[in-house]
Design a protein that fits this description.
The complex is a heterotetramer.
Chain A (H helix, E strand, L loop, with lengths): L1 H17 L6 H24 L7 H16 L5 H23 L4 H21 L16 E2 L3 E2 L3 H24 L1 H11 L1 H6 L4 H27 L9 H14 L6 H17 L5 H15 L3 H13 L9 H5 L6
Helix pairs in contact in A: 2-6, 2-9, 2-10, 2-11, 3-4, 3-9, 4-5, 4-9, 6-9, 7-9, 10-11, 10-12, 10-13
Chain B lengths: L3 H15 L10 E7 L10 H15 L2 E2 L2 E9 L4 H13 L5 E5 L2 H14 L2 E4 L16 E3 L4 H14 L4 E7 L2 H16 L3 E8 L7 H9 L4 E5 L2 H13 L9 E4 L4 H7 L1 H4 L3 E4 L7 H14 L5 H20 L4 H10 L11 E2 L5 E2 L2 E6 L12 E7 L1 H4 L9 H6 L1
Chain C lengths: L16 E12 L2 E12 L3 E6 L5 H9 L4 E8 L2 E2 L5 H5 L3 E4 L11 H6 L11 H7 L1 H5 L10 H15 L3 E5 L7 H16 L3 E6 L2 H7 L2 E6 L2 E7 L3 H12 L2
Parallel strand pairs in C: 3-8, 3-9, 6-7, 7-8
Antiparallel strand pairs in C: 1-2, 1-4, 4-5, 9-10
Classes of the chains: A mainly alpha, B alpha/beta, C alpha/beta, D mainly alpha.
């Protein structure tokens, strides 16, 4: 399991290291932030089976808190990011406490509603500056040495932080904690009978996911030097769902692939005559109707089918596409 | 191994997607517009603003300093990150010389900072945030059409002068609304009027009946809406329903109303409302001449921001010609030096803080009986001098003005 | 008394099978639950299917009714192939389904439950007849369906399909969880249905009940029918039956 | 006399106004509940269908030259027909999947519809005025009610009652209720459940369309009018639970009134009050006020 991921991950890292030769660093930073955001969302969907429709609340909280710390308190960037993560995690714990009481579509509706509530709170809170957003951010020096005003330095800092965050996600998924989460997803009553408290585990996962989403938001605010309402809207929550769906639910790299595709698609739509909302809506419909495994999932099963040993009629992959949550 | 092909594919796709359309040679003069082409603001800006910029280039003759002039535009989808990354690419790769409009104040402010960083020029037409010429002012940015301070002040002063001296505010409950109301209250007080009450309503509240009942039970003779967009439309529509402002002794004042919103409401509903605008298509021969040409292309009349895009683009091109270079500093100096006289603005000038100073107009929306046809919506009630409408130098929070004084 | 002239059992020497199942396979998702079931039910006959829990008895009924979406093989009803048909169309060929656990709807009153199945062929009992046969139901007609006692619910489940007019009745464990007195009453009802000429496919775990009413008996295990015998041979199969049912 | 420093007239007035908002919440959550019952799909496209109803009303006036009453009939039919197409073309093929896919699919459909409408009709929307009969206001002394709003409350009450009767007292209704509990068994009785499911979606869509027509004279008819509403209605649905239709109706009206009162006592919270009530309900009774499932 681990070995099968080493090569693709290394290849991806190498590609990301040489990517600034071809792409704009700031565009790549955006993709990395989205990828981390999608991974945070997917941690909950893919491993706990909970679809949150309000994750923008944490992404936006991260962005606002990091911006607040950098612009008004002049904190060092690493401290600003930690602050963003802490507040997002706290918010995650509160929202999670309410939301994990229900499952499936109810969980989705509850997170959507609570996310909208968070949006209204930020809208009305004076410190967010309404439509103008929090501005005047000077990113400063990361860990006191890396000058973040240099785009490449900024890019590699963001790359390093996201890579660490991904490694952490990987560790967690593979840890006993991650195993218990999967056990809960597969068969909750059984997990209870084994003496685990599913609610507690779900809440922990939710909080962790919120913290990661906050980190992604904080990185974005630090890099773009602005935090705005856009990052807290339900549309943003919808977008991260789409990224994960396109990339492939249930695959470790799926959210990354999805974030890159949707981020690239938005950039492409900006300069085309096609109406972006219509295209995104159509992408949703297409993915649900015809492409439930997503890019990574489809590629994975294509590769597996090439190896005849692994292809059996009872392939769990085919079953997995019928359900998100058991 | 198994993920490598996916990643390669994703990155190749990414390359293809983010690749820009082939640009003309570097020695073209390029102006760019970052518009919401398909979202909430696509009516008030969008394709219409791009068309206005294209008309300006065409009318200018298509070339300046012997170079072709090109208009580029992008759908920023109301996302700050898209707007800023495209602005960077435009400045760096496509050698865009000036960005002549951007939706959303947050995106506009960010783009304005990028313009400073890249030594280019930015003109704001659609957004009304006073920050552009206050806290966030810079030598690279011009705020051309209006700002919320001017709208609130002009409406406040002109309406009190016309006899509406007791004000009740229906205000959207966030920074934008709070500032908007405060500015209007100051203006009302400066002319001897008073604020008798106010009520806060949430953004996107859709139902205003509660606020309207409170307004109705006050003894105000002016009910002002410190709101924007769909909120204003809903508030006005429901005011008509409650019989406020139609046939009673109260007047409605919309602090920020685009003609597109009046068109969408219909005169039946909007009649009698007072509003301030920098432009109306049917003011004189010149405005009609431009607007009818625009109408032929777009199927609707231009609003103040769209007309502003034409006027500011034209002024920019004239300044390039006069300066003999596209260097932003020299062009900016010329823009600030040359007076502006066209259908959009008479004797306008650009102040040191980037504020284009122009007269504002108070309009009253016609009743269906008064209207002679499509788009015949406004009757001019008053003119507010530029110095009376915009933030005075003494109150400015812009460092560029502080240095001078 | 039945209103229409229907052939009663034993009148013809070789009655056509009303139901003929050949090599029926069925799957729930990925799990293969029926592995080639073959059986037939003759006009007016009562056929019992016995077997342990999970042997595929209920699945056989459900597969015949077409509510298991993935199935293959052949199911002919009155000679008509139905393997590709939708369950509502299959039901309209004259099947009357009395599901396990009775399937009484909680959100419907007893009377609404009774009136729910649309009349699929003439010859069903009128509501007055039903209330005559099951006076308890008449008393409780306005109670929510699931407030009825287990026995009443079972009567209701049978009564409602009688009203619809189907002449081939599928009874899925009608005695499950009922007191012996009630089981006796159910047996009376089933006997009455036999005299009226209904064909019945009975799924049971209650051996005594099944043997009291069945003309023939099939034993199922692991999604197959492993043996079939007539009521006359029942005694000689008693030992293997005990073994298969694990009584 | 005053209640917490507010004149009782004001409070009574706000309760009445709240009932009007509640009318829309009730009609929409009723439609959602009917659809959920049979399809097990939370219809994210409900807000878009509501918007389509309002636009359909505008079209019957602007394009067909018909009056409000015609719109009141035509628009729900048109939206219902559209619902039929959506159900047959998309929803039908995902019933066997996890219910979350239904949510995602209808979310995509909502984005698509709203995007198309914005593309066709512009973001500012279209004019629609109060029908002449309902021009003007009733001054009840303690509150002023525009006549049209009185009509809205009446129309929504009548509609809710009619739908309730349809489902609780008719044969079709008993099919629907039974199929909600056990669709397989219902189909074993010879009832075409697939058709029933389609009718449930059509009925829910038509109710959303009807709300749209009723809303058109009050709210600006724009492509986004349903977007924010649907999130509030979701909160209403979570609060009420999916247990019963009457539950959906009562919670809808109740939440409207609570929201109305908040506008008097603490206006700053009026945008979040419904979400707060939902959060409290989750603490006290996770299944919702009328919810049955755990």
């Amino acid at each position: 399991m681990l070995r099968s991921h080493v090569l693709p991950v290394l290849a991806l890292l190498v590609l990301l290291c040489i990517a600034p030769l071809v792409f704009y660093p700031i565009f790549l930073i955006k993709l990395l932030c989205f990828a981390l955001f999608a991974a945070a969302f997917h941690l909950l969907l893919g491993y706990v089976g909970l679809l949150s429709f309000g994750h923008a609340a944490f992404f936006g909280t991260g962005a606002y808190m990091c911006a607040q710390a950098l612009a008004r308190w002049n904190l060092a960037p690493e401290l600003a990011l930690l602050f963003a993560v802490a507040v997002s995690a706290a918010l995650g714990a509160v929202i999670g406490f309410l939301a994990v009481r229900r499952q499936g579509i109810y969980f989705a509706m509850i997170t959507l509603a609570l996310g909208q509530m968070v949006y209204f709170i930020y809208l009305q809170a004076p410190f967010t500056g309404g439509e103008d957003g929090i501005r005047g951010i000077t990113p400063g020096h990361f860990l006191g040495v890396v000058d973040l005003s240099n785009p490449l330095a900024l890019y590699f800092t963001v790359l390093a932080v996201t890579t660490l965050a991904f490694a952490l996600v990987w560790r967690i998924v593979q840890s006993p904690f991650g195993m218990i989460l999967e056990a809960i997803r597969e068969n909750e009553p059984r997990a209870i009978s084994l003496g685990y408290n599913p609610t507690l585990y779900k809440l922990a996962a939710f909080t962790f996911s919120a913290a990661l989403a906050g980190l992604a938001g904080g990185l974005k605010a630090m890099s773009f030097q602005i935090a705005t309402l856009v990052d807290v809207t339900w549309q943003m929550s919808g977008e991260v769902v789409l990224m994960t769906l396109v990339g492939g639910i249930g695959t470790f790299l799926g959210p990354v692939v999805g974030a890159f595709i949707i981020g690239g698609l938005e950039q492409y739509l900006a300069q085309s005559a096609l109406p972006a909302p219509v295209i995104l809506g159509a992408a949703f419909i297409l993915c649900v109707m015809l492409f439930r495994k997503g890019v990574a999932g489809t590629a994975k099963s294509l590769l597996q089918n090439r190896a005849p040993k692994r292809s059996t009629p009872d392939n769990p992959e085919t079953q997995a596409t019928n359900r998100i949550v058991k | 191994m198994k993920f490598k092909p996916i990643m390669t594919a994703a990155l190749v796709a990414g390359t293809a997607l983010s690749a820009l359309p082939a640009a003309a040679g570097p020695d073209a003069i390029k102006v760019g517009l970052l518009m919401d082409m398909t979202g909430n603001y696509s009516d008030v800006a969008g394709r219409g603003s791009v068309t206005a910029a294209e008309m300006a280039v065409e009318d200018f003759g298509g070339t300046v300093l012997g170079k072709p002039i090109e208009v580029v535009h992008a759908d920023m989808q109301n996302k700050v990150d898209i707007a800023t990354s495209i602005a960077r690419e435009w400045f760096d790769v496509d050698a865009v010389d000036a960005i002549v409009d951007s939706n959303m104040s947050s995106a506009g402010l960010a783009v304005s900072e990028i313009a400073v960083e890249k030594d280019r020029l930015m003109i704001m037409n659609i957004s009304g945030s006073p920050r552009f010429t206050n806290e966030s002012c810079n030598p690279n940015t011009i705020h051309y059409v209006y700002d919320t301070y001017a709208l609130a002040t002009s409406t406040g002063k002109a309406v009190v002068r016309g006899g509406g001296d007791k004000w009740f505010f229906v205000t959207v409950d966030y920074t934008f609304g709070h500032d908007f109301q405060a500015q209007a209250e100051d203006a009302v007080a400066s002319e001897g009027g008073e604020t008798v009450g106010s009520v806060l309503v949430p953004l996107n509240a859709s139902d205003y009946s509660s606020a309207l009942i409170q307004a109705q039970s006050s003894d105000a003779n002016v009910i002002a809406f410190a709101t924007a967009g769909a909120d204003t439309s809903n508030a006005i529509k429901q005011a008509a329903e409650f019989g406020i402002g139609q046939g009673d002794d109260r007047q409605l004042a919309g602090l920020l109303v685009y003609i597109n919103e009046v068109d969408a409401l219909g005169l039946e509903t909007a009649q009698g409302m007072l509003l301030t605008s920098a432009f109306y298509w049917d003011l004189d021969e010149e405005t009609r001449a431009f607007s009818e040409r625009y109408m032929e292309k777009m199927g609707k009349m231009p609003n103040m921001s769209q007309a502003g895009v034409y006027s500011s683009t034209m002024h920019y091109l004239k300044a390039v010609e006069a300066a003999g270079t596209e260097n932003y500093a020299e062009v900016m100096a010329k823009m600030k030096e040359m007076p502006i006289n066209d259908f959009f603005v008479k004797d306008g000038y650009i102040r040191e803080d980037g504020r284009m100073m122009r007269d504002m107009y108070l309009f009253r929306v016609k009743s269906p009986e008064e209207s002679t046809g499509a788009w015949d919506y406004y009757e001019k009630v008053a003119t507010i001098e530029a110095e009376d409408a915009f933030t005075p130098v003494s109150e400015s929070r812009c460092y560029l003005l502080k240095e001078e004084s | 008394m039945p209103k229409s002239a229907v052939p009663t059992w034993g009148e013809r020497p070789m009655p056509d099978p009303v139901l003929s199942v050949t090599d029926l396979h069925a799957w729930y998702g990925e799990s293969h639950v029926l592995h080639g079931v073959t059986l037939d039910l003759k006009e007016g006959e009562t056929l019992a299917i016995l077997g342990r829990n999970g042997a595929g008895k209920t699945s056989t009924l459900r597969a015949i009714m077409g509510v298991i979406p993935r199935r293959s093989g052949s199911v002919k009803i009155h000679g008509r192939e139905t393997i590709r048909q939708k369950s509502h169309a299959i039901a309209r060929l004259g099947l009357a389904y009395v599901p396990e656990e009775r399937g009484i709807f909680a959100s419907l009153t007893a009377q609404e439950n009774l009136l729910l199945p649309p009349v699929i062929s003439p010859g069903g009992l009128a509501i007055e007849e039903i209330y005559e046969l099951f006076p308890n139901l008449a008393e409780r007609r306005n109670s929510p369906g699931t407030r009825l006692s287990g026995g009443e619910q079972q009567m209701l489940a049978i009564a409602r399909v009688l009203r619809a007019g189907g002449r081939t009745i599928f009874l899925d464990e009608p005695t499950e969880g009922l007191a012996p007195v009630i089981v006796e009453r159910i047996a009376e009802v089933v006997a009455m249905l036999k005299t009226r000429g209904y064909s019945m496919l009975l799924v049971e775990q209650n051996l005594a009940f099944a043997q009291a009413v069945a003309d023939r008996t099939c034993v199922m295990e692991h999604g197959h029918i492993i043996e079939t015998f007539t009521a006359a041979d029942a005694d000689s199969h008693a030992a293997s039956l005990q073994n298969h049912l694990g009584v | 006399m005053e209640i917490f420093g507010f004149p009782p007239q004001l409070i009574l007035g706000q309760v009445l106004i709240g009932l009007i908002n509640g009318s829309f919440y009730a009609l929409l959550s009723l439609g959602l509940a009917i659809i959920f019952g049979l399809l097990r799909v939370i219809n994210f496209a409900h807000g878009a269908l509501y918007m389509m109803g309002a636009f359909a009303a505008w079209m019957t006036q602007a394009w067909l030259g018909l009056n409000f009453w015609a719109a009141l009939v035509i628009a729900p039919l048109a939206v219902g027909l559209f619902g039929l197409v959506v159900e047959r073309a998309f929803l039908r093929s995902i019933y066997h999947l996890d219910h979350l896919y239904g949510l995602l699919l209808t979310f995509g459909i909502a984005l698509l519809i709203e995007g198309m409408y914005r593309y066709w009709f512009g973001a500012a929307g279209k004019p629609f005025t109060t029908p002449d009969v309902f021009r003007g206001i009733w001054d009840l002394g303690f509150v002023i009610v525009p006549k049209y709003r009185g009509f809205v409350v009446l129309a929504s009450l009548v509609t809710c009652l009619a739908v309730w009767l349809l489902i609780e007292r008719t044969r079709l209704g008993s099919y629907l209720r039974a199929a909600t509990e056990n669709p397989d068994l219902v189909s074993c009785f010879g009832i075409n459940v697939s058709l029933l499911t389609a009718s449930a979606y059509v009925l829910g869509a038509a109710l959303a369309g009807l709300s749209g027509v009723l809303a058109a004279p009050i709210y600006q008819v724009t492509p986004l009018m349903g977007t924010n509403l649907i999130i509030v209605v979701f909160a209403v649905v979570v609060t009420g639970g999916m247990g019963s239709l009457s539950g959906a109706i009562i919670t809808g009206y109740g939440m409207g009134v609570i929201e109305g009162l908040t506008k008097v006592f603490y206006p700053a919270a009026s945008s979040v009050v419904i979400f707060v009530v939902m959060a409290l309900m989750l603490l006290l009774r996770p299944a919702g006020l009328f919810g049955k499932e755990a």
